[in-house]
């Protein structure tokens, strides 16, 4: 696979953008290949400037659930953009989108922002304002955006970086505990009695690789928060509208006080949201005294793309069962390939999200994820991308399926994975 033009563009970009990218994971620092410079996307395929075609299992980190440039989403944007781009003022599409999100996700109220980071940051500020408490509990390996309060033992690309510039005065109010470990949560509440405003968690982690929470663990979190007057925040920036219309909350039958959204909610455009119970949401300005603002929040173009996406998902509930079938097929056939190759591995999957961990047999938290064979995963990722299967370059990320993927796409993934295993035996 040739990436001559990609390398030329990427090298020139480094002159103007730090590292040549606007988000670190895109730089492929841990791989021995130039990151392809993408020029086009259609369905489950992306194309780079060198003319290479890839089956995309990254999907803008899960955002493109309908596939790239879904016609209904594109048409919705086109209809709006000729007359509306941004006003910093109320529009009708804001109302329509808010109504659709609240009714579909079964929440009382929602506030739109511009990113998942803004959503989680707002949710935590809201929790502190509502409870009058200062501290939050997060879980090692969960990534909630790049605000200082979330970067202690965070997952995603951060797991492979040494961070600087973090304000320790802010971070001291962040308590980190172990995912799926109730004892560590109870200890935090005992040692910080009446000080914890909220517990924030990815109910299905996607930023230490895919690691689902145990149902009894989430149920216990709900009970602990109720007992101590703390809020439970589900970060569904990745899982919101991906696993079901009501997200992970429907799967676990556990109701958080606040939930954050991103990725899918914007139909591929920059968007985030925080939603939840009315008595809490009404604390946001201008109705309350918890401040949040953003000039581009809820702008018509993003709202139209998000509205078209969620409306299409709601009108086609079979999309979720179809993706589950494909996900199960990918998991089953990869299990057979790796088992036949005598590899030690673990595949964690939830619906259309999947991560392969090499060198370990079980991953239930960040500590276990970090014990996986990172070098083997890097070799795997590099091999897959070179053979036109676009996967995350980091072990601590999820792979995704979309409505646009087919059995043939999954079979091609498995075929290249088999070739990778064969190459390792030579």
UniProtKB/TrEMBL annotation:
<dbReference type="InterPro" id="IPR004639">
    <property type="entry name" value="4pyrrol_synth_GluAld_NH2Trfase"/>
</dbReference>
<keyword id="KW-0627">Porphyrin biosynthesis</keyword>
<dbReference type="InterPro" id="IPR015424">
    <property type="entry name" value="PyrdxlP-dep_Trfase"/>
</dbReference>
<dbReference type="GO" id="GO:0005737">
    <property type="term" value="C:cytoplasm"/>
</dbReference>
<dbReference type="InterPro" id="IPR005814">
    <property type="entry name" value="Aminotrans_3"/>
</dbReference>
<comment type="pathway">
    <text>Porphyrin-containing compound metabolism; protoporphyrin-IX biosynthesis; 5-aminolevulinate from L-glutamyl-tRNA(Glu): step 2/2.</text>
</comment>
<comment type="subunit">
    <text>Homodimer.</text>
</comment>
<dbReference type="GO" id="GO:0030170">
    <property type="term" value="F:pyridoxal phosphate binding"/>
</dbReference>
<protein>
    <recommendedName>
        <fullName>Glutamate-1-semialdehyde 2,1-aminomutase</fullName>
        <ecNumber>5.4.3.8</ecNumber>
    </recommendedName>
</protein>
<dbReference type="GO" id="GO:0042286">
    <property type="term" value="F:glutamate-1-semialdehyde 2,1-aminomutase activity"/>
</dbReference>
<keyword id="KW-0413">Isomerase</keyword>
<dbReference type="GO" id="GO:0008483">
    <property type="term" value="F:transaminase activity"/>
</dbReference>
<keyword id="KW-0663">Pyridoxal phosphate</keyword>
<dbReference type="InterPro" id="IPR015421">
    <property type="entry name" value="PyrdxlP-dep_Trfase_major"/>
</dbReference>
<dbReference type="Pfam" id="PF00202">
    <property type="entry name" value="Aminotran_3"/>
</dbReference>
<dbReference type="InterPro" id="IPR015422">
    <property type="entry name" value="PyrdxlP-dep_Trfase_small"/>
</dbReference>
<dbReference type="GO" id="GO:0006782">
    <property type="term" value="P:protoporphyrinogen IX biosynthetic process"/>
</dbReference>
<feature type="modified residue" description="N6-(pyridoxal phosphate)lysine">
    <location>
        <position position="263"/>
    </location>
</feature>
<comment type="similarity">
    <text>Belongs to the class-III pyridoxal-phosphate-dependent aminotransferase family. HemL subfamily.</text>
</comment>
<dbReference type="InterPro" id="IPR049704">
    <property type="entry name" value="Aminotrans_3_PPA_site"/>
</dbReference>
<keyword id="KW-0963">Cytoplasm</keyword>
